[in-house]
């Protein structure tokens, strides 16, 4: 299934991984929000923990069709995600996100904290108020 990606941390424009992983591989980047999570500070990168009623700000990234498979693989490696691996830091899940420009919803891949990581963050993590990684400084 070819879905766009919702990015909310180091892959956003101006952040350290944006150019290294996305430059030249995408058709479009649009401001978007994910209405089902909270953002926690991690060791140099954030985690989304799924929570109803909260909002995380980021970008909806639509890859070039010819880059899709390679980009999916490289982002899975970056996020240390392997399907079914209990050691995952993140899980890649299909969720609804909302384009800021027109309020339309679209299904996208979202990397969310894996269950064990989410439990640790809920217990003693640092919440990023407002759900915007780039505004945390």
UniProtKB/TrEMBL annotation:
Pfam families: GGACT. Residues 5-134 form the Gamma-glutamylcyclotransferase AIG2-like domain. It comes from the Bacteria. This is Gamma-glutamylcyclotransferase. It comes from Streptomyces cinnabarinus.
